[in-house]
Design brief:
By secondary structure, the chain is of the alpha+beta class. It is about 45% helix and about 15% strand. The termini are far apart.
């Protein structure tokens, strides 16, 4: 059991929401606790749902004594949008999930349409881009690019790298699916530079020395590697795929 007094926990980690309810500042859920009846329900929520974090959160708020944090409370619509976005994005769900009959039947979240969700997602994207833009301003920035093809769709991720931080600047498909060459990547990078207002003077380039070292190490075995590559290409077809276990080392 926590050594922190229940009253202190309730005051710091909950915001009154009417006469009988309080809103948790960690997860934004509402708990019933009639005034004058103690803090049992509120503390029980912290112990059950935030056992590993609520004491650290309490101390963080205490260190910000004098700030306006204790008086800030999100409105119900904002909380609803936040929870839907958190659920859909973090579990990689389709946007239409929020309108499905079974989802609405088994969730306690308020209803929201796909149109409303998209609108707020684009708004959130602008806010996040604005914050990243401020953090990159005046700093040297390098780009790490990851690209792959899955089910006929080519994806590209552009990661901005500074001395101490990394930021996912872009995760997108290519506009022209028939062109997956260098020109298409350069066009995507141009959009990234414009979006985050990164100037040419901020860019820095790195040689991938480890990659070059591995290529030099494998150069003597190029003939064997080429044969393995050719074999895997043939075994990757649907017709020949059942032969793959036979060609795989135990």
């Amino acid at each position: 059991m926590s050594s922190i007094a229940p009253r202190s926990l309730a005051t710091a980690l909950f915001v009154p929401d009417g006469d009988e309810y309080h809103q948790c500042r960690i997860c934004f859920s509402r708990r019933k606790q009639v005034r004058g009846t103690g803090y049992t329900n509120l503390v029980e929520h912290l112990v059950r749902c935030h056992a590993n974090t609520y004491e650290d959160e309490f101390r963080t708020i205490q260190r910000r004594e004098g700030s306006l944090d204790a008086f800030v409370k999100g409105d119900e619509f904002s909380r609803t949008i936040y929870h839907w976005l958190d659920w859909i994005i973090m579990e990689n769900r389709v946007l239409s999930m929020c309108e499905k009959v079974k989802t609405r039947k088994y969730t306690r979240l308020n209803r929201v349409s796909v149109k409303t969700l998209k609108k707020n997602m684009f708004g959130l994207e602008g806010v996040v881009q604005g914050r990243i833009k401020l953090r990159l301003r005046g700093k040297k920035v390098g780009f790490a690019i990851d690209a792959w093809t899955e089910d006929g769709t080519h994806f590209v991720a552009v990661i901005g790298v500074t001395e101490i931080d990394k930021y996912l600047l872009c995760f997108s498909t290519l506009t022209d699916k028939s062109d997956m060459g260098l020109d298409a990547i350069i066009e995507l990078l141009d959009d990234v530079l414009d979006t985050y207002e990164i100037h040419a003077s901020q860019l820095c380039f790195y040689v991938h020395r480890f990659n070059l070292a591995v290529q030099a190490l494998m150069r003597e075995d190029n003939d064997i590697l080429d044969k393995v590559h050719a074999l895997m290409v043939k075994l990757n077809t649907i017709k020949n795929r059942h032969h793959l276990p036979k060609a795989t080392c135990p």
